[in-house]
Amino acid sequence: MEGVGGGGASAGSPVGQMGHNAWRMYQYYLDKSTPHTIYRWIGTLAIFAIYSLRVYSIQGFYIVSYGLGIYLLNLLIGFLSPLVDPEIDPSDGPLLPTKGSDEFKPFIRRLPEFKFWYSFTKAFCIAFVMTFFSMFDVPVFWPILLCYWIVLFVLTMRRQIAHMIKYKYIPFNVGKQKYGGKKSSAGSSGLRGD
Questions:
Q1: How far apart are CA 142 and CA 59, in angstroms?
Q2: Which residues, listed in sequence order, are joined to residue 109 by a DSSP beta bridge?
Q3: Average pLDDT of the chain?
């Protein structure tokens, strides 16, 4: 039986090998994009604009947009939530400090920024592809969907903000000190160079 055992992986079909090489190349560029947060989000903003223009020009696919909005709201909640929620899972691991005398513990997200960005972008790409198939263009009265999504967003964010206030955490790096790194070490090495 060919293809079974240790040598079977290299003896795959040419189509399978091309697919594997394409996946490796995709993963390579995805890994290279990891430290470039701003550029990744600018690209996602461009994809969002293209999707919005497509939906606006077609005047349809509102149910796809509504489903996309619900999915993005779910991602946002995961992005803003701590990894270990004190209300749900009291554990011995790192918890959020609740008093000023508690030890500082960094905020660890349930959904890291890169996975949030990746899922966000992938959702827009999938929704964009869905706009090319008429079976997803279900006729609906879109203002009702928009109002319902806004109410859902407001209620969900109010609950999330109340959780942030109760457990005293901010899921962003606003106002935190940034260190210079090499500049401070170069200045201190000049003092010791006697």
A1: 10
A2: 82
A3: 82
What is the pTM (predicted TM-score) of this model? 0.73
Q: Is the dihedral of CA 77, 81, 84, 87 positive or negative?
A: negative
Query: Among residues 152, 157, 133, which one has the least CA distance to residue 67?
Result: 152
136 Cβ neighbours under 8 A, 6+ residues apart:
61, 63, 64, 130
**How many other C-beta atoms are found inside a 10 Å radius of the C-beta of residue 7?**
9
Q: 191 pLDDT exceeds 70?
A: no
Residue 152 tokens read as 């859902």
Radius of gyration of the chain (CA): 24
What phi and psi, each to the nearest 5 degrees, are found at residue 120? -60, -50
CA 170 to chain centre: 17
* Phi then psi dihedrals of residue 155, to 5 deg: -65, -40
With contact defined as beta carbons under 8 Å apart, do 63 and 140 qualify? yes
- How many beta carbons lie within 10 A of that of residue 52, not counting itself? 12
CA distance 190 to 151: 60
